[in-house]
Design goal:
This protein is mostly helical and 219 residues long. It has helices at residues 16-25, 34-46, 66-73, 88-101, 107-113, 119-126, 141-157, 186-193; strands spanning 51-54, 57-60, 104-105, 161-164, 194-197. The protein has two domains: 13-63, no CATH class; 68-197, no CATH class. It contains eight helices and five strands, in the order ααββααβαααβαβ.
């Protein structure tokens, strides 16, 4: 309870952003120093175990950014664990559909096939109307990094050959190189540009899985 502020007020986390303003502008609190009201509000909030206090922001664990949630719930993707990732089945379905139509698997096409990228927004990016592709992808950055890594592992299992492809702006004018990321991270830019190609002359057919105990060609 704030002395001089009238009846005690029960604040909810969604109203915290406006709480400081209310505490310093309403008639009941106008006689109190602004910092005193802020300190009292912060104290009442940080005593609630369901709330995380971050600088001048408070939010419940469920409302924290998805990137932070994903970082806590998913370990680094490795060759041994990538098939256990929730994204893996969706990537497999998208790649299978792409290879049923052609021989080249591009990360942007996988994103479209997974429903994470609208084809019209992809086209707008190709014409230079979007500053960087990740801005219009319906997925957080942590999951996108996992997706690209899982795609590379899966393409290796399918015996697809990696090949770098340059993305330049469509339309008239100078052929400006397009960006995938906001920061221009070199490794991520290369991962988006890396296509996977089926080298066979006939249609793609997945390699037969090697069962345990089955002899290999080298044995």
């Amino acid at each position: 309870m704030l002395r001089g502020c009238g009846e005690p007020t029960k604040w909810t986390w969604s109203s915290l952003d406006s709480a400081f303003h209310v505490a310093s502008t309403t008639d009941g609190c106008s006689r109190l120093p602004r910092l005193a009201c802020q300190a009292a509000l912060v104290h009442s909030w940080t005593s609630d175990p369901s709330v995380t206090f971050l600088g001048n922001k408070s939010m419940s664990a469920l409302e924290q950014p998805r990137s932070q949630q994903k970082a806590r719930t998913h370990a680094v993707v490795s060759v041994e664990t990538y098939r256990d990732d929730p994204l893996y089945p969706r990537i497999v379905r998208a790649v299978t559909a792409i290879l049923a139509r052609g021989k080249v698997v591009a990360p942007v096409d996988v994103l479209v096939g997974m429903g994470l990228l609208d084809p019209t927004r992809l086209e707008a990016w190709r014409f230079g109307q979007v500053p960087y592709l990740e801005r219009v992808v319906k997925c957080n950055l942590t999951a996108l990094s996992r997706l690209l890594r899982i795609l590379r592992f899966h393409a290796h299992d399918l015996k697809l050959s990696p090949a770098s492809n340059a993305y330049v702006r469509w339309g008239k004018g100078p052929k400006q190189v397009l960006r995938f990321t906001k920061t221009g991270d070199k490794q991520l830019e290369q991962a988006y540009c890396r296509h996977f190609i089926w080298p066979g002359k006939c249609e793609f057919h997945p390699p037969a899985p090697i069962t345990e105990g089955e002899p290999t060609r080298s044995s």
